[in-house]
Design goal:
Elements: H1 4-22, E1 42-45, E2 50-53, E3 62-70, E4 77-83, E5 88-91, E6 100-108, E7 120-122, E8 130-133, E9 143-146
Antiparallel strand pairs: 1-2, 2-5, 3-4, 3-6, 6-7, 8-9
Length: 148
């Protein structure tokens, strides 16, 4: 006696074999592609800290950015996550005079990650930057601000 389920399974299996044999270049439809690599990564070193800023990605399903840091180029570990809409990250507790390397990637809501950005580096320093404003061309300076 012929079993209807077995006959149906054999027919479907044979059809798939014939289809794949006749069309060897047929690929399954791609899933959601990963986000683009973030652009514009810039760093600003301060006293024991580094501030990272970058351009926002445009993907509608973007969930977060992952931040990587290390003291050896090419050997970075994940140190944080930033939700979309806040394209900035501050990492503190860093040793002044030590060079740190940073990179980020973008991750969508399905867990697809972009490639990492190129690494950038910064060296925190206890020396605060000085900013002077020259409002009056006749004077040497009008005001200076000390600090980050």
């Amino acid at each position: 006696m012929i079993h209807p389920r077995r006959t149906l399974f054999a027919t479907v299996a044979l059809g798939m074999v014939l289809l794949l044999t006749a069309c060897p270049n047929v690929q399954p439809p791609p899933g959601n592609p990963p986000p683009a690599v973030p652009t514009g990564l810039a760093v600003q070193a301060g006293n024991g800290q580094v501030i990272l800023n970058w351009n926002a990605n445009g993907e509608s399903d973007l969930a977060k950015y992952n931040v990587y840091q290390g003291t050896v180029s090419g050997s970075l570990g994940k140190v944080g996550e930033v939700t979309t809409g806040s394209e900035s990250f501050t990492t503190g507790g860093l040793a002044n005079g030590t060079t740190y390397f940073f990179a980020i990637d973008a991750e969508d809501s399905e867990g697809n990650r972009s490639s990492r950005t190129a690494e950038v580096s910064a060296t925190p320093s206890a020396t605060a930057p000085v900013t002077c404003t020259f409002d009056d061309p006749a004077s040497t300076f009008d005001s200076c601000t000390f600090g980050p």
